[in-house]
Amino acid sequence: MAQQSPLFTLPREIRDDIYNLLLNWPNDPPDSPAAAGLRYREVVGTFGDRSVFYPPPTLYCEPASALSQCSSQIRQELYELVTNGNLTKSMTYELDVMLKGCMTWPTWTNLPYPVRKMEHLQANLRLFDIKDGASLFWGAGGPGLVFVVLFSLLNRLLHHGPRFIHNEGEVRGLEVDLLTINMLPGYGEVLRPDDERFENDPDPVQKCQDYIKRDHARIHMNVCSLLHAVISQGLLSEKVRTVRVRLGRKMEEYRVLPGSPHVEPRDEWKRWGFVWGVDHKMKVEKIESSAFLGQYYCLLHGQEQDEGESEALEEQGGGEEQSETLGGQGVGEED
To answer: Which of 4, 54, 135, 205 has the highest CB neighbour number within 10 Å of its CB?
Structure first.
């Protein structure tokens, strides 16, 4: 006779507490885009540098899936814990989003299991190498350079579920009661007092601090302005109830009114190479993040990689790029 695990000698309430602790154990996000490892790159629209780097399926081994493999009893108790709502009552799902230029790398830091509805989703938007952020977040006659990739990521999340491009049909779409966008600038290379724009200033340190403060305020204002326009036109209706945008002590909150989206915002976004609410097959590129960034910035600055650097990148797995098409059953455009 198989020996019973000591876990099952504990009262059910204590076992549920243990499950909750294990399922809500957060993961650490990558330190930087270069440390993001192997990703699936999707080029958004017609601009080659606007890309979303989705994590591979191996990063979607949710704790619930791993625990359910231990025994049939644990699997049944997890199912009961999830279905009665005790697991999700006070849970905050967390998504780390690294933004560098017009490219973004999403990584779940707290996703116990794939769901169709989230009470609270917090997206921590880490801004890398921002020296003049307002120009990235505001365009001339249209959305800023970074909004297309950010809204494409949001589109994949809301219409495909938490696994973005690797849903395999088991989760289609997601509803969020409260979406908090927590903006975190100051990562990577930032503006410093020795920048040439401050060289003639008597107090470059204070001038630099004032400039950064104003720039962050403009970023927050631009994000809030576009979100308000999108929400007021019904683009997030039936998907998100409330949106909060936070940068430091600044916070704005918007209520999403129910109703069908207007035609105008969809047509407007199509001009910029982005379509909302369409589940289409897409071509993605399997690539190592560090290798891609090294090649990208060499091309950007008109430089060539030396032989040693090229060999180092190949050793990291970035020597070859693999293209494949992901998709499946199209659901068409949302009503």
So the answer is: 54
Chain length of the chain? 335
pLDDT along the chain (335 residues), means of 10: 77 87 82 91 76 79 73 85 66 90 90 82 90 68 74 87 71 84 84 84 89 85 84 84 91 84 61 64 78 72 46 42 47 35
- What are all long-range contacts of 304-313, with beta carbons under 8 Å and residues at least 24 apart? 313/288
* Cα separation, 121 vs 178, whole angstroms: 6
Angle, helices 12-23 vs 72-83, to 10°: value is 80
| Per-residue confidence (pLDDT) for residue 180, from 0 to 100 | 96
Residue 207: alpha-carbon gap to chain centroid: 33
Query: Do residues 124 and 110 lie in contact, with contact meaning Cβ atoms separated by under 8 Å?
Result: no
Report the pLDDT value the prediction gives residue 168, as an integer from 0 to 100.
58
Residue in the block written with tokens 């997030």 = 236
> Whole-angstrom distance between the N-terminal and C-terminal Cα of the chain?
57
CA dihedral 233, 169, 51, 185 (to 10 degrees): 70
pLDDT of residue 225: 85
Whole-angstrom CA distances from 99 to 32, 137, 328 are 9, 12, 28
161, 151, 78, 77: which is closest to 118 by C-alpha?
A: 161
pLDDT attached to residue 96: 95
Q: Any idea what the Cα angle at residue 242 is, between residues 239 and 245, rounded to 5°?
A: 115
